[in-house]
Amino acid sequence: MWQEIFGRGLVNFGIRYARRITIASELLDWLAVDFMEHNWDIKRLVKQMVMSATYRPKRCCFEEQLEKDPENKYYARGPRNRLPAESIRDMILASSGLLNKSIGVQA
Length: 107
Hints:
Helix content is 43%, strand content 4%. With 107 residues, the protein is mainly alpha-helical. It has one domain.
């Protein structure tokens, strides 16, 4: 889900040795524990990500962050292209198995 929202995942499993290369291991650990402690609530997890300071950055510090981390490797700021509300809704429904892929059919 992180990759869908922010454009790059937190974990890269690598091609050569298939070993886990973690970009932000502390963040990944915190998200995993928080997700488990709240009964695997996907809706809450997505809401927490899109309401975070990383996703909704303030413009006042943008130039400073751009100098320190031009590639946004450490997620100092949110992505330039944000997902529309419909895409976030569909992503949540698809991950929970509740997405109806039929067009124009009411459930």
